[in-house]
Amino acid sequence: MAINSVLFVCVSNAGRSQMAAGFLTQLSGGSIAVESAGTEPADALNPAVIAAMLEEGVDLRDEEPKAVSPDMLWQADKVITLGVDLRPLSGGVRFDDWDLPESGGLQLAELRPIRDAIKARVLTLLAEFNAPAAA
Fold it and tell me: 66-69 long-range contacts, Cβ below 8 Å, gap at least 24?
């Protein structure tokens, strides 16, 4: 199955989901439509998240947290959650959960391992997307 769009969802949409979306956008070269959203969006991204991603060449300064909607879930080819339960909204949409520590309130040094874990998962995800279909 070709993956054309991915939605990352966490609680605040101010950390993990934004990092994942930023990495997938960058590493896919824009070939995949990427969105991120939250179940309880924060007012702004964690400044340490922005700094951590700038270290990797991903600029999130213009990103803003936004709320996930059922339409967003249905339109995505793949939905990846980061610490949220979307079953009440999903209506049968299949999603994968990435079990990663919460990033809210963390400082830059504390965020780097989470950022690096997210990047590794995004690279694995891209490899899965590019794998030949099973015969």
Answer: 66/13, 66/36, 66/37, 66/38, 66/41, 67/13, 67/37, 67/38, 67/39, 67/41, 68/7, 68/9, 68/13, 68/37, 68/38, 68/39, 69/37
